Amino acid sequence: MQQEEDQLFRLFRVFAPVVDQSGISYMITDAAGELVYVNQAFEEMTGYRAEEVIGRSPSFLQSGEHDAAFYHDLWQTILSGKVYRGILKNRHRDGSLLICEKIIAPITNERDEIEWFISTDRDLTESIRLEEELRSSRERLAMVIDRAPLGIAVASEDGVIQEANAAFSRLVDLPPDELPGTHLSRFTHPEDIEEEMVLVRALSRGEIPSYSLEKRYIKQGDEPLWVRVHVARLPDVPGQRPLLIGMAEDISVRKKAEEAILHQAFHDPLTGLPNRSLLLDRLYSAISRARRTQELVAVLFLDLDRFKSINDTLGHTIGDRLLKHTADRLLTSLREYDTVSRTGGDEFVLLLPGLSDGEQIMHTVERIIELMAEPFEIEGHELHIPTSIGVAVFPQDGADAETLIKNADVALYRAKEMGRNCFVFYNPDQNVYSHERLLLENEMRRALRENQFQLFFQPQIDLATGSLAGFESLARWNHPQKGMISPGLFIPIAEETGMILPLGATVLRDAFATVARWREQGKEAFKLSVNISGRQFYQKNFLSDVMDLRDRYRIPPHSIELEITESIAMQMTPSTMDVLLQLRKEGFLISLDDFGTGYSSLKYLQEFPLDCLKIDRSFIEHIDTDRRQRGLLASIVGMAKSLELTVVAEGVETEGQLSVLTDLGCDRIQGYYYSPPVPEHQALEFFSRTT
């Protein structure tokens, strides 16, 4: 027995250096379970020296991680002569946990009695720690990927999804369990599939390392979702199919912002119509096509004749709504492939491509004029907005887009000069007119600075007495080189350019100064009428300006008669009505000028604080020869009389007209029958003669 024991230990000592090099711990216990041998690896693994543990039970290594049942089963195994294999958690001398892969083999004698237990331990502590860290790292990575805001998916080279995170599932609007095995064509917009598959094949062949692409995903019941994808090839794994990994980012908000910016760059923000940039682009294309097909292209330059007055009287909110309604109305009058653009203010440019003859253009223009003649109903206001249109046609009126638009604009101004609410086709002779008009506009600005405007006066005669009742003051332009320039030329320019405001202010000031000057000369029993433009009347400071002039020149208000037009009356608002009432309260006389030229209505004759009704010259011209016109005039005079208004007839030129007006009971007349408008010194002479 002793000989066998010695032989066993000698054998272990012979192999100890080799065993120790393996890092495997060996220990031998006797049948009673006491240690009789440990190798160097044991010492290094546990932190105990051999002399400390020989003769002791290995139980001092127990960590407390296993319960009594665990050790009972272990002993039952080895006591039955079987080899035990398992993972044992022991405790290092320093207190740290020591995880080992343990094998315990019982050694028996010739009587089959257990005399020794040989135990080996392989330290798994570090490898298990690394495995745990790797597992934990993988779990964290999986959690990060699954919770990532970007959609992440792994797919085969032919575009079949293998796995994907939750964000990707949300992007494609498919449940996570349906994604594996799904081809990307199922949720990719049909127009984007081919482009991406070309890139996928290039990536698979190694022609590109990765690709980025903006594409659309289809979502059930929703608009396509714009995403940006970045796809790369995963490193190859032997024995496995090549895989691709892709990340998808929702860029729909950015895309919508880009679309909005692009829309704003090429569309009018108020009406949503194409702007000048988009119009030019479409016009270039239309001309290019027309050159090939020998078709006509028409450009219509359209202007709302009384828009500025609407804006000034009813405010920009009503003006904006009018522009929107105009845009809608124009769109309904054209073909689907025609273009309606707004180029600024109240100007619209219409593009009509693919025309075969001029009759099509004429028909379209007439339809627009007719359509725009219908009143607009906006916030309780019935607005009548006549329209002027200038037309230029490719190729005869211009070979390029800019020339066509310019010539249509020239034709538009000619239409305005012809009385508005009409259309004019471009004629090369109009360019001369347009150039002259531009020169006149510049000279008019200089005239305002240099006080070239002066007042002329046309007398008004009281028919009952034949005496002078007053004068109408009229602006006249005495050009230093060209002499007197017709009001028919400079008044429309003043209204269109805004110069009517400084001109109106000058006329009003000079009228007050004239009354003061004449009163100092003893001429008191008369009234001086002053024309007030719509833009001037609707200025916020108009009332205070009139009051300031009254105080400055110290004249009685009843010596000034302020003439407003029917357009002002039509667009009266509560605030502007207050201005009229205040002027009337202060003693100024209010006259309605050019009655009958607009949309004459009893409503504002009844409601407005008027003193005088001036009948336009168009109602006077044929009253001595036209019975119907005479009857109409009789009705107007009778209506005015019933409202206790003074009636003044303008444009009286013949004795026959005078006779009829006298018979009808007209109060005052003015016109060339008595005198044309004259400068101040002649007016004073006329004043002296008639009184």
Automatic annotation (TrEMBL):
**Domain PAC: residue ranges:** 82-136, 211-263
Question: GO biological process annotations for this chain's record?
Answer: cellular response to nitric oxide
Give the highest taxon in the source lineage.
Bacteria
Reactions listed under catalytic activity = 3',3'-c-di-GMP + H2O = 5'-phosphoguanylyl(3'->5')guanosine + H(+)
User: Which Gene Ontology molecular function entries are recorded, alphabetically?
Assistant: cyclic-guanylate-specific phosphodiesterase activity
Q: Name one Pfam family in it.
A: EAL
Entry's PROSITE patterns? Answer: EAL, GGDEF, PAC, PAS
Q: Which residues form the EAL domain?
A: 437-691
- Provide the GGDEF domain boundaries: 295-428
Q: Which residues form the PAS domain?
A: 18-57, 137-207
Q: What is this protein called?
A: Diguanylate cyclase/phosphodiesterase with PAS/PAC sensor(S)
Q: What is the lineage of its organism?
A: Bacteria, Pseudomonadati, Spirochaetota, Spirochaetia, Leptospirales
